[in-house]
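Entry 14. Ran structure prediction on the chain below.
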Amino acid sequence: MGLKMVKNVVILGAQWGDEGKGKIVDVLSAKVAGVVRFQGGHNAGHTLVIDGVKTILHLIPSGILHPGVECFIGNGVVLSPRALVEELTMLEQQGFDIAARLKVSLGCSLLLPLHEELDKAREKMLGKAAIGTTGRGIGPAYEDKVARRGLRAADLLDMQQLEIKLEVLAEYHNFVLEKYYGVKPVAVQQMLDELTVAAEKIKPLLADITGLLAIYQASGKSLLFEGAQGALLDIDHGTYPFVTSSNTTAGAAATGSGLGPLFFDYVLGIAKAYTTRVGAGPFPTELDGAVGKHLAERGQEVGATTGRARRCGWFDAVAMRRAVQINSISGLCLTKLDVLDGLEFVRICVDYDEAGKPVYEELAGWQESTFAIKKYASL
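Output, structure tokens:
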């Protein structure tokens, strides 16, 4: 099935994230009516360069840079009001018409400064055993969601009730911050003031995303569903516990947006011609020597969200096979092949031995540039 024949496409990372999803979404956005973000928070970073201008998006779908494309933030996203307002302001200052084309689910769980402080305190206490989170409060926000004590975007419509709920939530978390982690509590009034200001910007964007997507589906309009992070960071199917706090696999496109699973036509997996990972966790094909340095420098492997250097290694076909299985991936888009230019040899992990060490197939490298090649035969 080719992409020209399909209607609703899920685009997700098939490795540990940072595969270049934003670029692909940007290219395909011109062909669809809307783009939907369905999980994660502002721990994601999609870097786009248009006419020489670099834009890094964390919450707003990449399709927002295309005039006429509607963008939706689904209920599966944990929403930082502060981060969303900052991103809206940045895009508006660049001349983009945002308010008319962006809708935010009433069901989004709110990510608050409380969650950020909990995240940072927890990682600090773990020391060398730290997971390597972005420190942006994603995990604690999802914990509150599952515990059914969190605030939601709909609460911004009634600030009096929000204040009551916020006080209860703050009492619970500030006790943990003070008594367990030994850090300062987060001031309720300060959070309330910030939310009050942010609400004025966000309230006009709130909508029943599930209902809107049903209308799009019924009218035959095409939609892109944009995942954050990568399949191997999925809370259930990833390299636990070194994972993110949400489901990053294709199934989350349905639960995180409200569009039924039978309405998805194609799952496009994005992968680099090598492998990278940010933060702690297993990485069988990781390289520490000259080749790893080559990949990091040529690939400019620095996290868009945190600025952390990415760990680099050979392409892992075993991990890729698992990503294909858990996502029912229809097709793969391979990025950054040109980063391998100039290497004497290229290795691909095709198996693991009994000790868990990678077994490689070694191929001859190439010295010519593959940059801008558009035909497979030219390779």
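The longest strand covers residues 345-352. Will compare against last week's run tomorrow.
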